[in-house]
# Entry
Amino acid sequence: MPVILRGEPVTPCKLGILSEDTNKTISMAFRHQPMGVTVEDLSKEEIAALKVRGYGKFDHLVRVDPGGAVFPPEYRQLCEAYRSFAFRSDDVVVMSYPRSGSTWTREILWAMKHIDHLHLADLHHVNKRVFPVHYDTFSSYNEIDFSNFLEIPDNKDQGGEPSIMKLAAAATSPRIIASTMHFCHFHPDLLDSCKVVYVARNPKDVCLSSYLMYSRMGRFEGNLSAWTELFTGNSLIYGPYWQHLRQAWARRGHQNLHVMFYEDMKADILKELKRLNSFLETFLSDDQLLRIKEHTEFEKMKAREKKPFLKLVKPGGFYQGGQVGAWSSSASAELDDRMNAWIAANCGDLDLPPLYNMHKQ
# Structure
């Protein structure tokens, strides 16, 4: 029987039409699941303000409510497809805010589901082995090498129809689906349909990691202070950070949601693998979990990145080091104080682990 990387085509995707939601109160987005979404262009003044701060290669962006997330304009044609995407009971979905450890977790989940075929990771990029559906919104970005996603249909001649989503919808089960989008961008029955693994990371290191990546991509030309202003001001693509986290944290009691913290993974990955093993009911042995630990070590994953899927214009690579607390050696005392105040203002009502309480130290 041939090995299936992530499924074979069986059925086409069905897209539905959803009504617009008129409630645009961002702070309540994680508490009440809307019936639809609204998509509005950022004003010329907002785009100009982004360019002044160094976020200068975006001439057109949209804001999506509820949630307040900013996306490339392709999202307007894809929002209904995301909202009506049909998840299956044997799917595993990994969700996170960008630069929070999602690529590491994708590799872990794939390895847990393909323990006897780990050698395939040396032949195929992880994005050929899972379905990162959020990249459909970036079809016009020349920084992304879409050849890493198998034979994706050309978006440009199909009126913005989904591509990675179409591959996922036409694939046999089981599937691993990845997304850096918010919970509210999918159908409200997502957690009733399948298991979801959500990965969170301290916002300081997320901010630094995203700054380095966008700088290397040539999409940002300012300094860390200017980037932090955009990050904390909810002006970046995929933001706001706290709404992304709140929507997952509010659902943490659901039996189909497993929340992981990047810092816990770095501190004791075997412990976290055992927790995942129980949640996913993969019934792997301790020896097999040890193999997965070794398979997903940072240096091994970096070595497999023979053909990066991001085209970088500055030195460095997709894998930056993945260290906990890197922010402290990069940010000034004044910038750290600003970040601490922002964290304190946003997480006071959340029962988060101590790693989010650095502002109290």
Summary: The first strand starts at residue 38 and ends at 41.
